[in-house]
Amino acid sequence: MLTTKIPIWEYLPNGLARHSSTGTYYARYQLFGRRTMRSLGTNDARVAKMRHLDLQAKNERIRQSGIRLNAGVGSMADILREALEAYEQNATHSDKSKVGFRLNIQRIEKHWSVCFGLPIGGMKPEKITNTLVERFANYLTNEATWRRHNTKKHRKGYGAVTANVTLETLLRVMVFAKARGYITEIPFQLKGDLGQKSLLRPEPKKKIEFPTHVKIQEVFAQMRTVSTAPDDQKELWAFLQRRSNESADFAEFMAYSGARVEEAADWKWEDERPNSIFVRGTKTETSQNREVPKIPAMVELLARMKARRTAEGRKLEGPAFTISQCREALASACKRVGIERWTHHTLRHLFATRCIESGVDIPTVSRWLGHADGGALAMKTYGHLRKEHSETQATKVKF
Asked: What is the pLDDT of residues 305-317, one digit of tens each?
C-alpha cells in the first residue's frame, strides 16, 4: 500500500512559508545574493503577515544602504553633516544643546585626523571599530592638545567628562547612521573601561568644601580691590573701581541666589519682589523660572547696588549688570586669598551648601535652584551635607 508523504513546508504567496508540523510561519527572502528563511515566531496568519511586512521594510533599508555605500555615498563626512543638520532642525533641542552638539562634532573631526593621520570624513562608518574607538579615547584623555576660550595657554588631554561627551556624540551619530540605513549594525560599543581614565565612568567628584564665612567675604573684598591703576590716572582708577565693584556684585548675587551665570546676567531690576527675586531659567529642561527668597545677605547686596547706581545717576530699571561673567576677577581673588580657584558654578554650590547647612530641606533648595526633578539631582549632589548636618545637630541633644 502506497503512503502519501506529507510535505514539510507549505509555500504561500509573497515570500511566506508555513512549517507543516509546527504551524510556524517563516519569511523567505534573498539579500545580497543569499537566500534565507527566518522564523516569524507565530502560528497566527495575521500576525505573520504584519511581521513579514516589517521584515521586508528592514531588508529594503539594508539593500539601500548597500547601494549607497557601493556608490560612494554614505561616508562619515556625509553622516556627520546629516546628523548635525537633523539635530539642529529638531525643535525639542535647546539652542545651547545644539551648540554643544556642533562643538562635539568639530572636536571629533579635529582630533581624529591628528590621532590617525587620516580625516574621519573619508572613512566608511562600518570601519570605525572598537579598536579605533579605544585608541581615540586614550588619545583624547592623554595626548589631545586644546586651548580654553579666551586664553593663550594650550593644555594636553581632556577631562573625563569632555571625552565621554565626545565619544557619546560619536555613538549618537552612528545610531543616526543605522536609522538612515547607512549601516546595518553599529560597529563599536562604548564600555565602562575605555581609556586609562575609565571613560563613561567619570572619576568621583570631590567632596564640596568651602572655606569659612570670613574667607568667603575676603574673596568678595579682594574682587573689589584695585591695585593696577596709577594714582595720577584718576579716570582710569575710577573706571577700574566701577568694574571691580560690579564683578564683586555679580559674584555675590550668584552666591546669594544660586543663579546660573546666564540667569544672573539676564536679571533685571523689574524682577525684584518685596521678599524675593524672580529668576528666569535658561530655557533648558533642568532650569526653570522661579522665585528665590531674599536672604539677609541678598537684601544688603541689593541695597548697596541701588545706592551706588543712584549715586551714578542711573535709574533702577533694566539689566542690573553690564557684565555677563566675572570668571577672571573671581579666580584672581581666590589666588590672592590663598584658596582653590572658584568658578561661576562654585558660587551656585556655595548657595546650596549654605542653605542646607542652615537647615533648609533639600527639596526646597532644589526648587530655589530651578531643578525640575523634584530634588533628585540636589540629593545626589548635596545629600552628604544633610547627613553631616544631622550628625552635628545630634551632638547638641542632651538628656
From this structure: 999 989 888 888 9
Retrieve residue 349's grid coordinates: 554650590
Same domain, 383 and 274: yes
Distance (Å, whole) CA 345 – CA 161: 16
The arithmetic mean of pLDDT across residues 283-299, rounded, is 81
DSSP state of 197: T
Q: Given the C-alpha cell 545630634, which residue does it identify?
A: 394
Mean pLDDT across the chain? 82
DSSP label at 43?
S
Together in a domain, 62 and 83: no
* Number of compact structural domains in the chain: 3
- The radius of gyration computed from the CA coordinates of the chain, to the nearest angstrom, equals 31
Q: Is 343:220 a contact under the CB 8 Å cutoff?
A: no
Better pLDDT: 95 or 274: 274
Question: Is there a domain that residue 94 lies in?
Answer: yes
* Cell numbers linked to 183: 549601516
* Tens-digit pLDDT profile for residues 126-177: 889 888 998 998 899 889 888 876 667 778 888 888 888 999 999 999 988 8
Residue 247 region, left (φ>0) first, then alpha (ψ -120 to 50), else beta? alpha
Relative to beta strand 9-11, strand 276-279 is unpaired
> Residue 370, Cβ neighbours under 10 Å: how many?
22
Domain identity same for 234 and 360: yes
Residues 223-244 pLDDT 10s: 998 766 566 677 777 888 888 9
Q: Is residue 204 part of a domain?
A: no
- For residue 289, the one-letter residue type is N
Beta strands in 186-282 (DSSP E): 276-279
CB 19 within 8 A of CB 40: no
